Amino acid sequence: MLPPHPALTRALAEWLPRQRWFGGKDGPIDDLAIGTATELHTGDPALHHLVLDVHQNGAIDHYQLLLGVRRELPDRLRHVEIGASTHDAPGDPDSRAVRLYDAAHDPDLTRTLLDELAAGASIGPLRFRHADGARIRTDLTSLPITAEQSNTSLLFGDAYICKLFRRLSRGVNLDLEVNLALTRGGCAHVPAVLGWIELDPGPGTSQGEPVTLGLLSDYLHTGADGWSLAIASVRDWFAHPPPPRDAGWEGAWAELDASAAGGDFAAEAERLGAATAAVHRALADTFGVTLLPAAEVRAMAARMNAELTETCRAVPRLAPHAKSLTGAFLDLAARAEPLAVQRVHGDYHLGQVLRTESGWTLLDFEGEPARTQNERRALAHPLRDVAGMLRSFEYAARFLIAKPGTVPPEPAGRLETRAHAWAARNRAAFCRGYAAAGGPDPAAHSVLIRAFEFEKAVYEVRYEARNRPAWLPVPLKSLAHLTA
Ligand SMILES: Nc1ncnc2c1ncn2[C@@H]1O[C@H](COP(=O)(O)OP(=O)(O)O)[C@@H](O)[C@H]1O
Ligand SMILES: O=P(O)(O)O[C@H]1O[C@H](CO)[C@@H](O[C@H]2O[C@H](CO)[C@@H](O)[C@H](O)[C@H]2O)[C@H](O)[C@H]1O
């Protein structure tokens, strides 16, 4: 039985802001209520599916939680404890304290998800669906992945990955919608969708469409994510001996070429560019392309600038770059041409791509977690994704510098020179691969690329300030370079 709501909501309101995936860290929780509660497994342990209504700043966000309830909490689950509560049922001789925890980390309970997906079950408002022809195994044990994530993903053996969306958005989740359409269209650059979980808002509600709660896909167990591969290459490059100290030393630093690194990433970056162009083509074929009138392009540039102003207010360290950033947005506004827009990835970076034995696969079409649902759904020019990936090369190049003690003790300016050389080489390779595979040539669209890249950098400054303040120097350092 679910513990009494007041005790439960108190514990949840205290626990939620400490979670990596909680999107409302910049303000207090004004109120928290249980929106829906569905019992998925009875006994000890018990499993309850909860949708939490979190009130902040006059708005309500909905978060998904698998709540585990146990009499005793084993050591392996201590790190996900939410709190204790008295399970106080009048007249119940078993009345005593129970322990509440995040059951996404409890394989004894998560196997229920596979059982219900395989059965295509409906439980209360929850619907478990499988893709046409998919046969889902139920004999697998789950393990949560430890990635820096906005959601929580569970690996089931080495066969499936089940992404449980944390902050829920109205209607069909973009990740499901895009992946399902691309899977059905035979696109080789996305993992196949096997099933999904949704919440039926029920008759009589104004928000008719089901809400996507989870997505079960093929787990590409041989894949290595682009971020780890890129960081390995940067580490190797930083360990590469500096130019010999002779008469031409300063000049040698100025012309530093990262191709000398043993773990060069450029060939992979080029292939990634080609895969990106192929996915953009598949998205255009599946969902169509439309022209954004010049007036709307100007409005888009104005929005970018407004976001800059707002972010400078919240993060004053961005202000020294504001003039150059505004200049790029004004250049975009002055373009006076319509823009061909389509469905794109929306939050494209090295952590969203996997290198498998057959090539690069793109993940997570959900868009930027800090954006509203409407903003995420908006069509965009495909070079917006290209700009996202270029930012990611900038991040990868500087990540090790921001982590003290991880690189050889070279003067800071020299490390920045190395970082720039690595980023420049891989940016160029990615753009080459993208254009050669039929994408719009980034070199021929410098105004667009610059505006999109700066827009993303502003987003990153805000994202890091809110979520990972220790990372803030990474986008700021790269901006210093790009706006110099
Ligand atoms: N189908 C898959 N096969 C293998 N690994 C995956 C798969 N889907 C996701 N991953 C791994 O999980 C990580 C997080 O997945 P992602 O969909 O980006 O979640 P989030 O939206 O929470 O950021 C990825 O960076 C990748 O390493
Ligand atoms: O993957 P998510 O959809 O959760 O995206 C959010 O988090 C990302 C970090 O995990 C963040 O990406 C930024 O950091 C990356 C390195 O960790 C870097 O490669 C990206 O270029 C940089 O934007 C992303 O912006 C955010 O939306």
Short description:
It catalyses: D-maltose + ATP = alpha-maltose 1-phosphate + ADP + H(+). The chain has 484 residues and is of the alpha+beta class.
Could you describe the 3D structure shown?
The protein is 40% helix and 21% strand. It is globular, with a radius of gyration of 24 Å. It has 3 domains: 99 residues; 111 residues; 259 residues, Aminoglycoside phosphotransferase (APH), C-terminal lobe (Aminoglycoside 3'-phosphotransferase, Chain: A, domain 2). With 484 residues, the chain is α+β, with helices and mostly antiparallel strands. A hairpin with an 8-residue loop joins β4 and β5. Strands 6-7-12-13-10-9-8 form a 7-stranded antiparallel sheet. Strands 1, 2, 3, 4, 5 and 11 form a 6-stranded antiparallel sheet that branches. 40% of the residues are buried. It is built from 13 helices and 18 strands. The site of ligand LMANGFYV has 16 residues, from α10 and α12. Its EC number is 2.7.1.175. GO terms for molecular function: ATP binding; kinase activity. Belongs to the aminoglycoside phosphotransferase family. Pathway: Glycan biosynthesis; glycogen biosynthesis. Monomer.
CATH superfamily of the largest domain: Aminoglycoside phosphotransferase (APH), C-terminal lobe
Q: How many distinct folded domains?
A: 3
Radius of gyration: 24 Å
What kind of sheet is the major sheet? 7 strands, antiparallel
Shape: globular
- Cofactors and ligands present? adenosine-5'-diphosphate, the ligand O=P(O)(O)O[C@H]1O[C@H](CO)[C@@H](O[C@H]2O[C@H](CO)[C@@H](O)[C@H](O)[C@H]2O)[C@H](O)[C@H]1O
Which oligomeric form is depicted?
Answer: single chain
**Unreliable stretches:** none
CATH class label of the largest domain: Alpha Beta
> Can you count the beta strands?
18
Helix/strand class = alpha+beta
Specify the helix fraction band: 25-40%
Question: Judging by the overall fold, what is the CATH architecture of the largest domain?
Answer: Alpha-Beta Complex
Percent strand: 15-25%
**Strand arrangement across the biggest beta sheet:** 6-7-12-13-10-9-8
| Tally of alpha and pi helices | 13
**Overall mean confidence score, pLDDT:** 91
Reported by name, the CATH topology of the largest domain is Aminoglycoside 3'-phosphotransferase, Chain: A, domain 2
State the end-to-end distance: 61 Å
